[in-house]
Amino acid sequence: MLQPAFPVLDILAQLPPGGLLLTPNNRLRNRCQQAYASEQPVSASWAPPPVASLQGWLDTLWFRLQQLGWQPALRQVLNREQRQLLWQRAFDEALERALLNSLQLCRDADGALAQLLQWQLVDNLEQLDSAIQPLLEQFALSLSAEAFPLFRMIRAFADQLRQHNAITPDQRDLCILHAFDSGVLPSLPRIDTAGFVQISPLHKAIIEKASGDLVDHPAARRAAVVTRAACSNLEEELYQAARWAAQKLEESNTSNRRASVGIVVNNLGQCRAQVETIFSRVLEPQFLDPAQPRYTLPFNFSAGTPLAQTPVGAAALQLLELLADEWDYSQLRNILFSPFWGDEESLWLRSALFRRLRKLELRQVTGDTLRYWAERITEELKFDSASLPRQLEQIGDRQRRWQRAPAEVWAARFSEILTLLGWPGQRNPDSQEYQQLMHWESALEHFATLSAFAGTLTVTEALQQLRQIASRTPFQAETRDGPLQILGVLEAGGLAFDHLRLVGFGQQQWPTAPAPNPLLPIQWQKHWKMPRASAERELELARELTDDLLNASGDIVVSYACEEDGVHQGLSNLFGDPAEAETFACDGLTEYNQQLADAVTLEQVPDTRLPPLLPAECEHVRGGASVLKAQALCPLNAQLRYRLGASDFMAPSIGLGPAERGNLVHQVLAEFWQTCGDSVQLKALDEGARKQQIETAIDNGLRDMRKKHGHLPSGFWAMEQQRLLRLMDQWLELESERPAFHVEKIEWDQQVSIGGLQFNLRLDRLDQLAGGAQLVIDYKTGTPSINEWLQERIREPQLPLYALFQPKAQAIAFGQVRASDCKWSGCGELEQPIKGIKPVADTQKDAPYTTWQDLSDYWRQGLEMLVGEYRNGVATLQFDRPQDNTNQSELWPLNRWPEREQAAQ
Q1: How far apart are CA 387 and CA 396, in angstroms?
Q2: Number of other CB atoms surrounding residue 216 within 10 Å
Q3: Rounded to an integer, what distance in angstroms lies between the CA atom of residue 370 and that of residue 322?
Q4: In whole angstroms, what is the distance from residue 3 CA to residue 554 CA?
Q5: pLDDT per residue over 105-140, tens digit each?
Q6: Strands 579-580, 741-754: parallel, antiparallel or unpaired by DSSP?
Q7: Which pLDDT tens digit goes with each residue over 485-504?
Q8: 274 contacts 234 by C-beta, under 8 angstroms
Q9: CB 300 within 8 A of CB 482
Q10: What are phi and psi of 208, to 5 degrees?
Q11: Is the pTM of this model over 0.85?
């Protein structure tokens, strides 16, 4: 069992009746109580020892004063969130400047006032000026306290406290000191203190006033064997610490001696998740198995996880975001995929809903859109239960009706919403989840206490306050005491270990860098040695803590990272120059992975085919010509995308995405040519009439796009109209230079069959030319190349495929519709040439075709080859060009390209 570093049993035995042993924290108090309990007879009854933590003792004294009816104690002591609200009001009243981060300023002001009270520089907020003025004069600062924004805020804050008959925790401590001074609280015959490193003047004064005899007990001195371990970074430090701890625990089990092992991590609160992951991987690798039921890990943390980051707390906050009535896709994904909402069947339905919403490619999903598609999906999938649409409709109804309300009303409303959604799910919670549920209820109660200070809140303000409370509420799972303890530096004070490892004690990390309060004069903070005030004060504190740690065990390893923030560093000088420690190259999981790697090499059998298409699948191939393009670029990716349904969605962007801009150009051109059907009408239009017709086509083309992007301002659409107007002018100028033509087909849907597969195609445009020939046109807003038609594997099969099924077609061409770069790019046999459309014989040197018929036969042969590959399930992972691979990187998790490339190397 983990023991205190001082003789607690001897101290308790020497205490007179009514005496008390004080510790700096609850962890050390609990250890003292456990050490005392372990020495008591099993069958006897006994009273708990007189041991208390400092804060627990102060809480008890305050409760006693309230029971006595002492007038100064009949006030509410504010918690952090309540103080934050009053500081915000004080800030609004006292300062007229618009600051960027008023939240942080209020936190700094709260910390500054706490330091003034704890260092007894201010005793009464009502007499602030008389207390501050001598201090300003002492340090030759400005003689007016008005020059300091902090003091104006404190006066306004004191007014708020007076209105609510409330005080801060530091004012409470001052009241306790005055109660001892005035005899309201009797002093104790003796107080023993142990484990304290540094204590504020106010707390020190309270202990001295409360005790007739004060005795401080330093930690027992030990002759420790100290070694050092140099590591490349924090991750390696933690792996070395975990492997070292595993060895010590194994030695303890072998010798049947229950040894205590401690890991003290500098800045544990900032890297707790990484520490837990690494120690789980080394000590409990089966914990990482998704099929393994969750259980309590065999090591204890002193640092808790914020409730807002626990599974239950995070899920509750995410589900309450449904009251916001507008979400982006990342928010909506977390909400709809929450395992704490309903049952597995509803999760399946919500997954289908999210997939449909992603296809809409909206920048923001509104509540109306979510509710509409929830009902549509439920009907399409023929779900018997309509619980999801009903739940969303009820939430939407409440969101519309619920207006501003006090925090206690919002607490009840939030509970109602969670109950409506079936939170936390239908399965029974495990032990940790149950404890998180209890913490959540406490957080809601804590939130409800803000009613008297926050006034009425909107739903956004209420959720923000609740999220702040959950983020500041630590969750520490109740676990049995284990042999391995992982602690922060302060939590380790006063404890003794059989083996101790210190992590993160490089020169740049220890002592810690000073961080004085920005609102208090720096001269005051340095003079009275306030927390984080100066490098000298941090060095003094670090020396005391280092001395305490080096006396905590007889076997100590201290580690450090050789590089921090790109700067080389060594071990902190406070540890001297100890010998090198043993290093650990591997652990159980690493050895197991190595055994697998060294095992008999498995035979690799290439699997480059999927099952051939069934007859029913050949009747309608979804994807059109894009299927053949994908097959040409990479057969496996084509099978994954169009047969197995792997897809990625366009990330919503501000304004219109590239695909939407391209579709818009197609739509405007289609609108124009439906009215202006040939070159004769085009050339007959004067400048005004042509502009009018273009503007009408643009207005019609933008109609649906405006509905989809209703959040965009009118100025955006005006700019888009100007862009399209300039682009259409340039394109129609090019069209007017062509020989006579008639637009035969626009956006024409056609079903074709090739190689036993049927495709649905949509032709952008088909022009009838003089002499009866036809020109097949595909608009492009990019920069296409006709060389993609002429490869052995046709990389752009769309236009060749269209041409094969237009008997009169004699040419195909890309219409490149780009600002300042409009042109034709194609090939064919035309009686009247068009600039940019090459004769077949001139397309490629030494080509196996010289006429249009030869080229058509070449295309038919190439397309039938691609069709045959796709129909027969050919799924090789090969690329003609590296960019074809990188452009489809979203499929790497399925085609496993990175693993294949690594294995090949």
Answers
A1: 14
A2: 12
A3: 10
A4: 14
A5: 889 999 999 999 999 999 888 888 888 888 888 876
A6: unpaired
A7: 899 998 888 888 989 999 99
A8: yes
A9: yes
A10: -65, -40
A11: no
